[in-house]
Structure formats: C-alpha cells, structure tokens
Amino acid sequence: MKEEFKVISELVEEKSRVLDVGCGDGILMEYLSKNKVVDVRGLEISKEKVKKCLSNGLAVVEGNAEYDLKQFPDLSFDYVILSQTLQAFMSPENVIKDLLRVGKKVIVTIPNFGHWKVRVDLLFKGEMPITKNLPYEWYNTPNLHMCTIQDFYNFCNKKGISIFKIISLNGKKTSEITSSNLKFKNLISELGIFLLGK
Amino acid sequence: MGNFGKMKSITIKQPLKLDCGKEISNFPLAYETYGNLNEKKDNAILVFHALTGDQFASGINPVTNKEGWWNYAVGPGKSFDTDKFFVICANVIGGCMGSYGPGTIDPSTNKPIGTNFPVITINDMVNAQYNLLDHFKIEKLFAVAGGSMGGMQVLQFVSNFPNKAKVALPIACTASHSAQNIAFNELGRQAIMSDINWKDGLYDGQTNNPDKGLAVARMAAHITYLSKKGLQEKFGRNLQERSDLKFGFDADFQIESYLRYQGSVFVDRFDANSYLYITRAMDYFDLTKQYGGNLSKAFKESKTKFFIISFTSDWLYPTSENKDIVIALNAIGADVGFMEIKTDKGHDSFLLDVPDFLSTIKNYLNTTYLK
Fold first, then answer.
1. CA neighbours within 13 Å on the CB side: how many for B201?
2. Residue A47 neighbours by CB distance under 10 Å
3. What are the structural domains of chain B?
4. Average pLDDT over residues A28-33
5. What is the pLDDT of residue B116?
6. How many CB atoms lie within 10 A of CB A67?
7. Which residues in chain B have their CB less than 8 angstroms from residue A47's CB?
8. Does the beta-carbon distance from B363 to A17 stay under 8 Å?
9. Would the CB atoms of B340 and A71 count as touching at under 8 Å?
10. Nearest residue, CB atoms, B337 vs list A59, A71, A73
11. Mutation site for B-interface testing, chosen from A21, A52, A55 by largest number of B Cβ within 10 Å
C-alpha cells in the first residue's frame, strides 16, 4: 500500500465517519475500515474503479466531485479525503470549498510541483517535468492546476482555511512541515499532506 | 395457459388493508424458490419482478416453457448464486400467474373478477409478499432485489420494513413515476380498453379476450425498453423477408415484424386486466410523496446497505432518477453504492446478458454476505 495512505490513516481518528473523494480502487477505504474501524464512503468518477470497489462491497458512489459533492449535507463527515486529485478539477477552489462544507476536517494531498527534480527539469532541460507522481506529458495530462506545497499553503492562508498539520512525504520518509521549514520542505517533498478545517 | 398445477402458493388468511381502502383476505400468493435456505436462515433473497414478470425468475417457466425472466442473473454460480443463496420470488397481487388478481375466478359467479378487482399499489404488493417471511420463518432477509417495478418494490419494502433486509438492490427504477412513465402506461391501457373484446374488463378469459389491445400495449411498451441505438443496430431499415418495399401495410420492416411478434406472444401469457392493474400501481408509485416530499425520510429508520444500479441507455428510468434515490440516501448518511452501467441495451439491460452488471452484483453479494 502507498506510504501516503498510511500517513493519511494516522491523521484519522478511530470510529469516525470518512468520505474518500476520488477513492480509486478503494484501497485506502479498505485500509481505514480495517485499521481505524471507520464508517467510510467513497466517490469515484471511473466506472472501472467503481466496479472494483462495489465488487468488494464498499459503499462507493459513481460521480464527479465537481458536481456530486452537493448531495452530501453540511458537516456530514468527520473527515473528507482528497488524495492527489485536486489538480485535476476544473475549479479546485470550489471543490475545496465543498470539501470544507461537507467535512469537519479535510485531508488533501498535493503532488508537489515545487520538488527540486521538477525545478531542475524545467530549469536545465526547459521541458515540462515528468516524475513518478506526475507521469504525464503536457499534452495528455489530466492535471489542469498544478501547484506547489507553498502555493497551496498560500492559498489556505488567503482563503482563511485553518491548517492543522502538514506532512511531507519524500519516498518513504515522512516529516512535519512548519512555517519555518516550509521553503526547504517545498524543495524536497514529493507530496504534501494537509490536514485542514474551516 | 396450462400447468397451473405446478405452482406453489400460500393463502394469506389475515386481512390486508389496501391503499384504496378495501380489505382482502384469504387470497393466494404464488411463489417459486431457488436454492436452499440454510440453517441460520440468513441467506434468503427476495426478488421482485417487473411489470410483466412472474415468480419464475430462473430455469424454465413451466407455464410458458420459456426461460425465466431473470435466468441470466438467478441460478447456480450466477449473480444471485443459488448454490449459496435461497432466492424467493412471488407473483405480485394483481398479476396473472397464480396470485390473487383480476383473472382469479370469483366462486360466486364462476367468472373472472375482472375490473371488480380492487385497484392495488406497489405498497399493497409488498405488504402481501411480506407474508412469505413468516411462511419460511425468516427473521431477516439477506437481500431484496429487483429491476424496474421490481426496484420500486425494493424501495417500498425497505421503507415499510426498515430492518428486514441487510442489502437492497433497486435496479433501473425510480422513487416516483414520472409524467412520461404514466403517459406510456396510459397509452397501453387505452389500447386495451379500446379493444371491443375488453367489455369494461368483464371478458370471460376463455375466448374473445382483448388480445389486440394487449398486443398493441406490449408493442408500445417494448419500444420504451430499448434504446434508439440498440434498435438501429439490431434492425436498422432492414426489410422483413423481402427485397423491396411492398407499398402496403404489411410488416415491410424487420422492426415491425419483431414488434408484432412480441405483441402476439405476449397475449398468450398475460392477462389484459392484469396489465391495467399493474401499470396503475406503477403510476400511483410516489415514495417521495408518501413521505411528505422528503424521500430521505423513507429510509431514515433503515440500516440496510443499498446498491443502486442504472444503465446509460435507459431513457425510461434514466440515471438521473436513480441518482435521486442515491442523493436521498446520502442525505441521511446511509450506506449506499451506486453504479451506472454502460450499455446500448436500454431499460431491458437488467434482464439481459450485460457482463459488468451481472458480475458486479455477484461479487457485491458474495463479499457483503461474508462481511
């Protein structure tokens, strides 16, 4: 299982209600329901992946977060998780707004466009970077709104979103990001995992 | 119709108060079962049939000698695996395969009850079938499932009996019959009622039945079960056993011939009055209204796990209407899964060999049963 999912599950309190937005194959959902005894729901856009989740008996609804988050009432979940999908939405800002409406706390994972490899690619090759977490060419990428950990941090501050915790993930190494090490962590982290609230 | 002797049925003795205000008692409910009820009695699945279905979901229907209506889905190793599960299916009241309906002979006149039969609802159908749980001494069903009108019965069942099923599978259905649905049903009813043999519903059921009207009703309905693309691909403008148009009103086109055939075989197995009563029950179905305009309230008491399925090319009970049920369930934090299956086969998809549909149900039921 992805290291990222272990980090996310550590942020989730036991016996809580969780919505996994863009739940994919449901691996995180299964992990959470086994290890954290959570009541977990999923939303997923890909028919193939929804089929897999339902085949495993998971409570997953086929849908698009950009339209289908509306159906969930305010604060109906303790946690809403969005793992590496924010950059693919037409309007990430509206999605974040909706996540914060539905969940008491929100966990967002950002593939970090500020990672040094990305910067080196652009600086020396002059080409759009292709990395493990960003494996697409510029012409076929689903990622419409790439950002760095710093960008997302700035965004939260600008929008008055509370940041409770930021975890840096680099390979299998995790560390906490604070305002004092942010510049450096933004250079070395592959992923930034944010725990947010209103 | 013959072979009625091969049918199982229970007689429901206690009075059932119908939505129309009338009360019925001592009436028959015909059913069939597949597989075995285990010792814990926790493996039973109650399957509800659609408008023209009956209790013979699987195998060969002994009355029509044709395959059961859900033969793709119900049977050993299939979606509803009868090696594991005990599948029960009853003929709805108002139907014509042995359950109490307008074709039932009234002993006082020795004639079919006809239109003296009370108007029934989906709620009445479900309440009648609930007696099967007592009959088999089943405390809680593992699942309730059905497509189209069967799906409406699933929704009604869960709202009437919130904790009598662990899993609910409403397929290709709606919580509230739309104006378009009612319009198509009315077209079918008018076809029947304008048949000279209908005689206000008091035909004798032996000779001179309103077969022409019923056949037209079936033809019209059949179109609504298919998609435009499906029809075009299957028939296109192909001609029926001829190389040129005949400049007449015979069936020049294959699609005409196909519909005429569908109409003609239907009248051999279905009663026109049953068609009127059952379509009426569907039209009256409005679970949202039953719960004061808030569909969520229908499921508020329930801990049932829902799996809702729709089909991309179903324009009779489109994805949007199925999704309304999902939304109502999500609004109360219910355990709900939803999937829209991609297929060109239209509303009929739930009855057909649609692999994604059949395999997902099978896996879902098998894993959920063990959880």
1. 18
2. 15
3. 4-177+285-370 (3.40.50.1820), 182-278 (1.10.1740.110)
4. 96
5. 97
6. 9
7. 339-342, 356
8. no
9. no
10. A59
11. A55
Select the residue of A51, A72, A76 nearest B360 (Cβ to Cβ).
A51
Interface of B with A (CB under 8 A): 305, 307, 326-327, 330-331, 333, 335-342, 356, 359-360, 363-364, 367-368, 371
Three-state DSSP string of chain B: CCCHHHCEEEEECCCEECCCCCEECCEEEEEEEECCCCCCCCCEEEEECCCCCCCCCCCECCCCCCECCCCCCEECCCCEECCCCEEEEECCCCCCCCCCCCCCEECCCCEECHHHCCCCCHHHHHHHHHHHHHHCCCCCEEEEEEECHHHHHHHHHHHHCCCCEEEEEEECCCCECCHHHHHHHHHHHHHHHCCCCCHHHCCCCCCCCCHHHHHHHHHHHHHHCCCHHHHHHHCCCCECCCCCCCCCCCCCEHHHHHHHHHHHHHHHHCCHHHHHHHHHHHHHCEHHHHCCCCHHHHHCCCCCEEEEEEECCCCCCCHHHHHHHHHHHHCCCCCEEEEEECCCCHHHHHHCCCHHHHHHHHHHHHHHHHC
Q: Are B169 and B309 in contact (CB under 8 A)?
A: yes
Nearest-CB residue to B360 (from A54, A59, A73): A54
Q: What is the pLDDT of residue B2?
A: 46
pLDDT of residue A76: 96
Residues of chain B with pLDDT under 70: 1-5
Structure tokens at A12: 């989730």
Superfamily of domain A3-197: Vaccinia Virus protein VP39 (3.40.50.150)
The rounded mean pLDDT for chain A is: 95
pLDDT at residue A134, as a whole number: 82
ipTM: 0.92
Chain A CB contacts of B336 below 8 Å? 41, 59, 61
For A63-189, where are the E strands, in sequence order?
A: 77-83, 103-111, 162-170, 173-176
* Residue written as token pair 């706390």: A105
Q: Say which of A51, A54, A71 has its CB closest to residue B330.
A: A71
Residues of B in contact with A57 (CB under 8 A): 363-364, 367-368, 371
The residues of B carrying an active-site annotation are: 148, 314, 347
* Contact call for B364 and A51, based on CB within 8 A: no
Within 8 A of B326 by CB-CB distance, chain A residues are 61, 71
Tell me if B331 and A50 make a contact (CB, 8 A cut-off).
Answer: no
Alpha-carbon gap: B339 to the closest alpha carbon of chain A (Å): 5
Whether residues A55 and B363 touch (CB distance < 8 A) is answered with yes
C-alpha–C-alpha distance, residues B17 and B127, integer Å: 9
Q: Which residue has the tokens 């699609």?
A: B255
